[in-house]
Amino acid sequence: MKSVLMIGQSNMAGRGFIEEVPAICNERIQMLRNGRWQMMEEPVNYDRPVSGISPAVSFAAMWCLENKKEKIGLIPCAEGGSSLDDWSADKILFRNAVFQTKFALQNSELICILWHQGENDSYEGRYQTYYDKLKVLSDTLRKELNAPDVPFLIGGLADFLGKYGFGRNCTEYEQINCELLRFAREQKNTYFVTARGLTSNPDGIHINAVSQRKFGVRYYEAFSKRTHVLHPLKNELNLLEPALNRPYTKGEQLYLTMSELALGKITYEEFTRRFR
After folding, report:
1. Sign of torsion, CA 184 145 11 133?
2. CB atoms within 10 A of CB 89
3. pTM reported for the whole predicted model
4. What is the dihedral of CA 36, 116, 14, 169, to 10 degrees?
5. How far is CA 93 from the centre of its chain?
6. CA distances (Å), 110 to each of 32, 104, 213, in order?
7. pLDDT one-digit tens code per residue, 177-214
8. Rama region for 204: left / alpha / beta (φ>0; ψ in -120 to 50; rest)
């Protein structure tokens, strides 16, 4: 099985409202939870009760469209509200990400690292030290995981920041984006993914569910073509459509129906009737 590490702050963990987008159900997409691989169900990165849609699931769904037989596992280690300093190599977030990934590598192959962070560093001139701190993080993470050639994908900050709501204070998001892009261009196996044109939840800081789906498609474009994605892609949601409209396998049907039963949406009699 292949695996993908998710690190950064809340827009990597995901805050998109789950009910706003069609669910992605695919038994070939797994998530690491409670020390074992489980079939993916959103929210994957449950760092807060408000966790929701992240870019990682549409990334994984796009991967499955091109890799018909293998499985892919998501390693959720993002933490809402975390600054770049919180991700220092001696801090708990970094150490946890390394621990979880090494655990996952016992039966998977790491193929990608997804990073999205910067809102919490986009004020008071913090962009001036962002590049150097990110380089220490990236270099140390690659060394710890023995992953010098694994693609490191870094998402840009959205252009709705700095205007209203909780995003009003992110006045230096453009400077952070410049540092992220410079970093991606200067470091090997590192690629920038633009957040241009994405839209937010009402809070003005978190990427909404539809845009998170698009963002994941952009991340996958960067991964599959080993290139920077500097502009929104054409027909981003259409590219994802085959992953949404595929027929469910028997295992997926059973999983979804058992979830309905556990949540009290159907009776046990209806459950047994569906699987006679």
Report:
1. negative
2. 14
3. 0.96
4. 150
5. 16
6. 13, 8, 22
7. 999 999 999 999 999 999 999 999 999 999 999 999 99
8. left
